[in-house]
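INFO  loader      accepted 1 record
INFO  loader      residues=494
INFO  predictor   begin
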Amino acid sequence: MPSRAWASAERHCWAAPAETGGDWEAKSLSRTADGVPYLSTKEFSPNLLGWIPIPGWVRDLADSFADFATQRTDARPCGGPAAPGWSSVDKRTTLVHLCSIANADRAEIQVQSNRRFYQWVNVPAGADYVWVEDQPDLLRRAIAKVTGHDIGGNVLLAGNGRFTAGYKQPAQTAKKDFNAYIDAWSAGLSVGISVLGLDPRTKVSSAALIVAKCVTQLSPFPSADGAKAFLGCFVTQALKNLENPDVALSAAKDLFGEAAYAKEAEEGLKQAKDRLRYLGRFLKVVGIITSTFPQLPDLFSSWGKDQPGRFTLELKGKPATPAPPPPGNGGNPPSPAPQQPHAVTPYDNYGAANAGRAMCRGNPGNSRSMPGGTVSQTFVVPAGVSAIDHVLVQIDPDGTVTSHLKVSVNGGLAATADATAAGDTHFSFGAVGVSAGQTVTLSLAFTATSGKIITLYTAGAPGGTFTASNSCPDGAPSVSTSATGLRAVVSGWS
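INFO  predictor   done
INFO  writer      dumping tokens
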């Protein structure tokens, strides 16, 4: 059905983005019997008044949004000597490029983003060092303060950015699980830095200053609808920030907790002042943000499709040093040293998910999410396992949701641990002694400060029983089955 647009009588030409190629074409106005001009079109692209000047950078900005979702990066050369023989890398994601080298007495993993947008990477504990390209430690601390991410366990990786982490050879074999992921903050910073037209590697503080005021529009996870609200909020808040520089600088210092990066953030916004003012006027005229930048819905729907972003640095333990022969043994060779413990996975069920399992969040601020749901998975300990100390569970990433794990052995509570829902969600606890034939039960409960439902997943047919129990009014289902199992990995030692 044709759409009709009205204009003042002074102009006789409109411009509209063409359906093919994204170019602009001129269209003539018609007039009603009483002389009022109008335009009829069967195309659903936005029609803009011809006298509105469209700078080239607006079209470039729209193209940059599309690049986020489609472009990949070329892997850089892996500089340095070959990685030590006691280390290896297991890559299971396309979100990053990986290589490893030897750095003195350490195995160094080099992680390069294979995307053009910002993403986070969880870094496991025990690193001798972590170095992030273009991010001094002072800036990393400022980013951590603003975003609420732990600097010790998270790296904000810019598009095509890189970081390295070095680990010494451990006494016992260990797996260091990394995870690349996207959340509301990384999505907001990606769009914000493009709107400002600044270098994403060195001017992240400028985008963070405004994203902090609008990030809730993208929670709990980036979406097309959230993109519309976020972009409007970002431009509006950035313009407000420029109205009173002294007040804005004071607020930036409070936000970053560090004067240098607060000032740098304000300077970046001043550089983008003309762009922001133009966008503010432009969006008021057009009205619908996704009509102006139709790439946004595709961008947000594409992000995270190749999750999870898990990769692992495996470190073999140091070989045992034989004890010297005891005095007076007649020169006989010493007895063999006892076998050293090695890492095992008594429950390993992290293949392709076969179903998402909606669970009540337990958010006191939303009665429809109360009480929080519970999930359990049982398995029988196989031979060759003496202890377990780590559980990995896939739970949709959401910083407002806390997962509470209980580990029971033959019905007796043995350990507890809490973790924020982060996609690949890790729980660590003191070693729990087990033996072959015992039944281990993993139980998960949820609490939250926002929203109603959180999702975890089942996969494969690992044996044991999977149970999901929900009673909140929002209607999350309950189920008990032995046909599939919780998408999780339980790690321990022989």
